[in-house]
């Protein structure tokens, strides 16, 4: 493969990996036989949008590749697409493993081929090094990648790197596994959930209890542990009202120790009722300064830098209006809240949009959590555009599981046998292979 005038030719290789294995080195060394290797390092935010957060950040990865003797230069690639760098650098060759011909990366490959054709560049693909798999290495590193410290920090890291965080309810190990693993390919992009919401409504409902702070923290922690044992994504806990300040400060430390990333507590007092009842239930707002003291006590008690205490504004739920919500938001931020959640059960989402517009005038950088259960016609992109940073699908796995289970139970009663539910159920074989045993 060695070329005459190899030193005059340039070779572009894009790299998103942070755990460098022999497969990457092989590709770089083969590239070096064709000419001077320029490595394009994908930025942290680009990597975060299509696979796990990089363990080593951009600067560290850049230094590693700069120190390789087969690499002449390292540049930044700040999109998944190679287009910008290829048009700028016009390398003679782009080198890649042949594993991108199918699957998610095939669109990127097609674009690379088009751009190379614009100026007469060439794509050189080498067989993927057999016996090494980044996915397998990631799997084996899970115990290290999933310590409480690393897990807790993931939410803040994601907030820095992603335009918004997509969160789904997880209420037990099995639904945690769904949130952890479900992926959908859309327009060449792999979409997945970023984090998990341990909802009070769903945790209580799965236990057959009402959502009135009856399921105590010990039980909630059991749920969290169950989920944590089988997943790696950051967890946001619905902390109801946070309880008494004297207890809250202990609970903050317990959650930090477990590796929970954030707790959201709501500014209500008395017997807590689910917010989606709105004013159909008695919703008593706490005194904002009393609630701010709770937030502040939690922040003082907190031991780690990463844990987040998020104050949930219930003014719109209780019918107290946007001015009240904005006023409270200011008080809670002054008390140290790391973010705010604004809740609403209005279907049109207008009050959320109005709140966000006015909130951003005085708090441009404080993350805002949205729970678009009622105003669910907005897309995530639209909510992000409006000013939302964390978007929580708070109850959808519970709400889809329950009718399915009920329908099955009713059909069996109706027909006096289970044959008629066969098409609604996964096979026993599928159940048995759903969760593979660890080797
Ligand atoms: C929950 O999921 O328990 C919540 C969100 O608190 S909501 O039910 O919309 O109030
Ligand atoms: Mg709740």
**Secondary structure category:** alpha/beta
CATH topology of the largest domain: TIM Barrel
**CATH top level class name of the largest domain:** Alpha Beta
Shape type = globular
In spatial order, strands of the major sheet run 6-9-10-11-14-15-16-17
What does this structure look like?
This protein is an alpha/beta fold and 439 residues long. The protein folds into three domains: 6-135, HUPs (Rossmann fold), CATH 3.40.50.620; 146-394, TIM Barrel, CATH 3.20.20; 400-434, no CATH class. 44% of the residues lie in helices and 17% in strands. It is built from 18 helices and 17 strands. The strands form four sheets. An eight-stranded parallel beta barrel has the order 6-9-10-11-14-15-16-17, surrounded by ten helices. Strands 3-2-1-4-5 form a five-stranded parallel β-sheet, with helices on both faces. Helix 9 crosses helix 11, helix 12 (245-258) packs across helix 13 and helix 14 packs parallel to helix 15 (350-362).
Gist of the model:
The chain is α/β, with parallel strands linked by helices and 439 residues long. It has helices at 22-32, 44-50, 58-66, 83-89, 106-119, 134-140, 142-145, 148-161, 173-181, 200-206, 217-230, 245-258, 288-301, 321-334, 350-362, 380-386, 396-415, 428-434, and strands at 10-15, 36-42, 73-77, 93-97, 122-126, 165-169, 183-186, 189-192, 195-198, 235-238, 262-266, 268-269, 284-285, 308-313, 339-342, 368-370, 390-393. The chain is globular, with a radius of gyration of 25 Å.
